[in-house]
Write a structure and sequence with these properties.
Helix content: over 70%
Structural class: mainly alpha
Strand order of the largest sheet: 1-2
Number of strands: 2
Strand content: under 5%
Largest sheet: 2 strands, antiparallel
Radius of gyration: 21 Å
Length: 374
């Protein structure tokens, strides 16, 4: 059983690495598209800021570890988590190959749901839907922590991107009307130069927010695995070299152990540094043409949504938030310039992510049962 636990942790880290290069586009697409940063510099900035973001806060990790799967109904936690990860990895690799910016977060959540349902023979009580015994900011369950943010975060991302663009244009128009030095500063050449520098800061903010929200999901998966392994007795005789893996030292309340946080942060940063050019091309070029002013609005609005969600422990989709922020900015510029065929493909990927990854995870768990491994 200990070997299985180690395999699950390894699979979780593979998922984290893939999450890094799959979602690199979220952090850097805007800055690459506007040519404020070269792809190499943008990836390096994203990797560093992903690392810093991943080292701060564990509220999302606690949601994944304790707020989705009902461990009182499902006991084979290690097998369940392994199948969930395999389902999420399979979907991530497929969408990466197709260049579709789908959600790694929703792929993981879908995998957890599919594996839990398979392990419980279709018992929907294997999932924690809602917990009304605690205040709403700390409540567990798919409804408040997953389903509500899944719908609201893209809407908020769109509206925030749209609103920020309108406000920036109002500011520029006011500077032009004021005349003098302000009018000269408001010229396109100076606007692009000024917001080009500001976009570097907003790209760093986006990288930080991405690491702060996304890296925590794998931290939660590892914590969930260790808690389940302890309940099944798999960690009763841990060798001294692995004593740090004991649940008492891995998750206490809403805090995840430092070794889990640091490991996941480093792996995600390594994945981000490896790039993800197929998706960068879709987000940065195929939806709408971006300028430095637009890129600043995209990064700032989407990062703000991610940081707010992470504060409340909501594992929202970085991909959905960034994509809809780009749509909002594009809509503010000119609704007719939005490339609807590309947007339609992206939306279909969003719709299919949870059921597809859940289905793959369900099949993996069924296969384990047939082989007598679960």
């Amino acid at each position: 059983m200990l070997t299985l636990v180690l395999v699950v942790i390894l699979a979780a880290l593979v998922f984290e690495f893939i999450n890094g290069f799959h979602d690199t586009a979220n952090s850097i697409a805007a800055s690459v598209a506007t040519k404020v940063l070269t792809p190499g510099k943008a990836v390096s900035l994203a990797a560093v800021m992903n690392l810093v973001g991943a080292l701060t806060g564990t509220a999302v990790a606690a949601t994944i570890a304790t707020g989705i799967v009902n461990t009182e109904v499902v006991t084979a936690t290690s097998q369940l988590v392994l199948c969930a990860l395999l389902g999420a990895i399979a979907w991530n690799l497929l969408t990466w190959w197709l260049g579709l910016p789908s959600s790694s977060s929703h792929a993981l959540i879908g995998g957890l749901c599919g594996a839990a349902l398979s392990a419980s023979h279709g018992n929907w009580n294997s999932l924690l839907w809602i917990d009304t015994t605690v205040e709403w900011t700390k409540s567990k369950g798919l409804v408040w922590k997953v389903l509500v943010p899944m719908v609201s975060s893209p809407v908020v991302g769109f509206l925030l991107g749209l609103t920020l663009m309108v406000l920036l244009w109002a500011l520029i128009s006011g500077m032009e009307r004021a005349g003098g030095v302000l009018k000269r500063i408001a010229r396109p050449r100076w606007i692009n130069a000024g917001f080009g520098k500001m976009q570097i800061m907003s790209a760093a903010y986006m990288g930080y927010a991405h690491g702060h929200n996304d890296a925590q999901k794998t931290m939660g998966i590892i914590a969930l695995t260790l808690v389940g392994a302890e309940a099944s007795g798999a960690l009763n005789d841990l060798p001294d070299i692995l004593a740090f893996m004991h649940p008492d030292q891995s998750i206490v309340g809403n805090e995840v152990a430092t070794w889990i946080v640091v490991t996941c942060a480093l792996v995600m940063a390594a994945g981000t540094a490896s790039g993800g050019w197929r998706i960068i091309k879709t987000l940065g070029h195929k939806m709408v043409k971006l300028h430095p002013l637009d890129g600043f609005a995209v990064d700032t609005s989407s990062a703000t949504v991610l940081m707010t969600a992470a504060h409340f422990g909501m594992p929202v989709s970085t991909t959905h938030t960034v994509s809809t922020a780009i749509m909002g900015v594009g809509f503010a510029k000119n609704p007719r310039r939005l490339k609807m065929r590309t947007i339609e493909r992206i939306v279909w990927a969003w719709i299919l992510t949870i059921p597809a990854s859940a289905g793959v995870a369900w099949l993996f768990y069924r296969g384990m049962m047939l082989l007598g491994w679960a």
